[in-house]
Amino acid sequence: MTQRVEHKIENGKELRWCNRCKQWLPLPSFAKNAHEWDKLQHTCNSCHTELHKTWYRGHKRYKSDRTKEYAKAHPETRRKAQLKFRFGMSLEEYDAIFASQGGVCAICKGAPNGKNLCVDHDHETEEVRGLLCHECNAMLGFAKNSTAILQTAVGYLGGKQ
Hints:
By secondary structure, the protein is of the alpha+beta class. It has two domains: 13-58, no CATH class; 61-157, His-Me finger endonuclease fold (3-Layer(aba) Sandwich). 44% of the residues lie in helices and 13% in strands. The chain has a three-stranded antiparallel sheet with strand order 1-2-3, with no helix packed on it. A two-stranded antiparallel sheet has the order 4-5. Strand 4 (118-121) and strand 5 (128-132) form a beta hairpin. The protein is elongated and about 80 Å long.
């Protein structure tokens, strides 16, 4: 029985065989895999990505169900990760802003109704401005964070057009 050689040298470059696209490719085209004899995956990065995309398309429900289950089981961990990823802030920084605002919305001064306050930030500089209730955060979003639009709205509400 002959064993297939998975590496070869061609023009001074070491190549590896991709089991999926059936091509000899340079070693940097393969991700690391500590469990393999040569510490590389059997498929090239392009094929590996395509395999995962195909698997994900067929298992969307499975993945979303697992994500939801994890979020329910670990709400603090999920919240910490979202704050760090979306706003670059820790839960402690969020709590400090919350305490400095007295635990209320920075605009309407309303207490949160069972939900966390939204982190309001400048979309251009990414600087966090404060914490808002959902309604006030939506209002700023609908006004496109424009003081001119908000001032026109104040005039409108006051009867001046």
